[in-house]
Amino acid sequence: MSHYCDLAPGHPFHGPYHDHEYGFPVADDDTLFERLALEINQAGLSWLTVLKKRDAFHDAFEGFAVDRVAAYGDVERARLLADAGIIRNRLKVDAVIHNAGVIQHLRDEHGSFHAWLEAHHPRPHADWVGLFKRTFRFTGPEIVGEFLMSSGYLPGAHRDDCPVQARVLAAGPAWARASETTRPAP
Predict the structure, then answer these.
(1) Can you tell me where the transmembrane regions are (predicted)?
(2) What is the residue-wise DSSP string for 61-73?
């Protein structure tokens, strides 16, 4: 089975995402929300489909501004479901809007979505899945795993021999910080 590090380099859509975003730590709440929304929309489809529609998603969801999306009502929902540039799945659209409201609540309790993630890190994948299922909509094991890998909370985005992995490690992803604190002293 090939790894994303084999497929992505040089590809017009996968390449830039692989080389500059995938696995790098993310602290900005709107960017974290975008990652979660894109992973939700990828369910049952290829990641390439989502990457090709990414600009349209960004426009349709107004830059993934959490507060704007959380305020969406029936008019915005109908607009999204009529937008041929994005994936027009009612369950996914509803989940993204609902999850924006959840992130607002997490910000009220923790200061930010990022702070909520940091407060729950580290934990095994299965525990993350349980936490996300209790907190968000449309977040199964694959979505949660990819979201956490893409934003630096779980390892596995890149192979150790991938040239991007050194840059990811230099950026200090949460999973690497956690492994450093649990390593025995030399």
Answers:
(1) none
(2) TGGG-HHHHHT--
Q: Say how far apart CA 30 and CA 117 lie, in whole Å.
A: 14
Q: What is the largest CA-CA distance in the chain?
A: 60
* pLDDT 10s digits, 4-47: 999 999 999 999 999 999 999 999 999 999 999 999 999 999 99
pTM of the model: 0.94
Nearest-10 crossing angle of helices 113-120, 29-42:
70
CB of 75 closer than 8 Å to CB of 107: no
- pLDDT per residue over 101-135, tens digit each? 999 999 999 999 999 999 999 999 999 999 999 99
**How many degrees, rounded to 5, is the angle at CA 94 between CA 20 and CA 75?**
105
pLDDT band for position 2 (cuts 50, 70, 90)? confident
Q: Which two tokens stand for residue 61?
A: 């969801």
DSSP string of the chain, one letter each residue: ---HHHHSTT-TTHHHHHHHTTTS----HHHHHHHHHHHHHHTTS-HHHHHHHHHHHHHHTGGG-HHHHHT--HHHHHHHHT-TTS---HHHHHHHHHHHHHHHHHHHHHSSHHHHHHHH-S--HHHHHHHHHHHSSS--HHHHHHHHHHTTSSS-SS-TTSHHHHHHHHT--HHHHHHHHHSPP-
- Domains parsed from the chain with CATH numbers: 27-177 (1.10.340.30)
